[in-house]
Amino acid sequence: MSGFGHFARTALELEREIFKRGLLIGLDWQDPATMRALAHEALTCTTDCRLGLLRNHDAKARGRGELFALSEMMLDTMRQSAQVGVHTQGGPAWKAFGRALYEESARLEAGSSK
After folding, report:
1. In this predicted model, what pLDDT tens digit does every residue of 73-114 receive, in sequence order?
2. Angle at Cα 44 formed by Cα 39 and Cα 48, nearest 5°?
3. Can you list the alpha helix ranges (DSSP code H) found in 1-114?
4. Which of 1, 52, 72, 113 has a CA between 20 and 30 Å from the CA of residue 65?
5. Rounded to an integer, what distance in angstroms lies between the CA atom of residue 77 and that of residue 25?
6. How far apart are CA 65 and CA 81, in angstroms?
7. What is the DSSP letter of 86?
8. Would you kindly state where each structural domain of the chain is located, as residue ranges?
9. Other residues' Cβ atoms within 10 Å of the Cβ of residue 23
10. How far apart are CA 111 and CA 114, in angstroms?
11. What span, in angstroms and rounded, lies between the C-alpha atoms of 17 and 39?
12. Is the model's pLDDT at 1 over the cut of 50?
């Protein structure tokens, strides 16, 4: 398993950046409603939406766009590590946002299959 240490390192780096963006935009990581709303926005924000946020002059809007980009990287890291049998997770911010993304993704999926 020593060859898979990069997943843990990546998770720690992403956790740090996710947490910093959360501080910037004033997130309460322990508020499930806030996390669900953020996850919904992250999952439904189109490429143009993200680019608009990333190019915005407002630091909080840019932070939101960066957080959405980091969420993609977080999901990719978890997916890639799972493919090789490694369970990867970060700290509290990662867990709160990851849980909300997973739940909101399932809710959106269920809604689109109706």
Report:
1. 998 998 898 899 888 888 899 999 999 998 999 999 998 765
2. 125
3. 5-25, 32-44, 47-54, 59-83, 92-112
4. 113
5. 24
6. 25
7. -
8. 15-112
9. 12
10. 6
11. 17
12. no
Contacts of 14 (CB under 8 A, 6+ apart): 70, 73, 74, 77, 90, 94
pLDDT 10s digits, 7-56: 888 999 999 999 999 999 999 999 999 999 999 999 999 999 999 999 99
- Residue 71's alpha-carbon distances to 2, 3, 103, 114, in angstroms, are 25, 24, 14, 27
pTM, entire model: 0.85
Nearest-angstrom CA–CA distance, 2 and 31 = 36
